[in-house]
């Protein structure tokens, strides 16, 4: 029986993922609500697979992926995110993830991703699979490609309404650092204020 560690800061997601995995013969050996806890439990439990969201408190998910895949324990990582694959899949692959599943696609896609990953296959969409309908989408994707992983995470928090202090606490950074990232976001995305930043994030399913 394959063992799985599930990492997400939403209790209902943890419950739903645990339920579908256990119904299909997988052993959920642990759960974590933030990146630091995820790394501790990964070391303690040595699961075959970690399922995680990249937007988790204390240590952002892409850094968690890097550390898990560099640990030498042979653990596979499947990313389960509400953000579009166009934005995150390549970043997750470069960090070492084996699969990317969008939460909006339903938990059956998650189950297929788990099966494929544990069988040694990658379930990461190729750029050729991404479909852009409008010039605006193409331009937004180009701008997003200029952002660092950390800048994308900061944008998620700020666009969702978090203050700089709240984002700093969740990401274990200083408020000054968050403010610096905010300035960089405005410059790279070509937005003038928080309303425009929120509109950009909403348009691209980042919040």
From TrEMBL:
Entries under Pfam families matching the protein: GerE (PF00196), Response_reg (PF00072)
SMART domains documented for this protein: HTH_LUXR, REC
KW Repressor (keyword) present: no
Statement: the UniProt record of this protein carries the keyword DNA-binding: yes
Domain HTH luxR-type: 140-205
Chain positions with 4-aspartylphosphate modification: 53
Secretion signal, residue range per the UniProt entry: none
Response regulatory domain boundaries: 3-118
CDD domains attached to this UniProt entry: REC_NarL-like
Keywords associated with the record: DNA-binding, Phosphoprotein, Transcription, Transcription regulation
Protein name: Response regulator
Source species: Pseudomonas triclosanedens
């Amino acid at each position: 029986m394959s063992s799985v560690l599930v990492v997400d800061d939403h209790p209902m997601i943890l419950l739903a993922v645990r339920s579908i995995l256990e119904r299909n013969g997988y052993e959920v050996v642990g759960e974590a609500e933030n990146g630091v806890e995820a790394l501790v439990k990964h070391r303690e439990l040595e699961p075959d697979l970690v399922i995680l969201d990249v937007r988790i408190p204390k240590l952002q998910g892409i850094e968690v992926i890097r550390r898990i895949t560099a640990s030498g324990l042979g653990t596979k990582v499947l990313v389960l995110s509400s953000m579009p694959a166009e934005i995150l899949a390549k970043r997750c692959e470069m960090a070492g993830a084996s699969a990317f599943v969008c939460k909006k696609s339903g938990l059956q896609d998650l189950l297929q991703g788990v099966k494929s990953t544990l069988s040694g296959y990658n379930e990461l969409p190729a750029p050729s699979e991404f479909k852009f309908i409008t010039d605006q989408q193409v331009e937004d994707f180009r701008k997003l490609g200029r952002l660092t992983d950390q800048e994308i995470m900061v944008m998620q928090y700020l666009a969702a309404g978090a203050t700089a202090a709240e984002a700093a606490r969740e990401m274990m950074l200083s408020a000054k650092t968050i403010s610096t990232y905010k300035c960089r976001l405005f410059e790279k995305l070509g937005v003038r204020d928080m309303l425009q930043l929120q509109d950009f994030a909403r348009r691209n399913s980042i919040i």
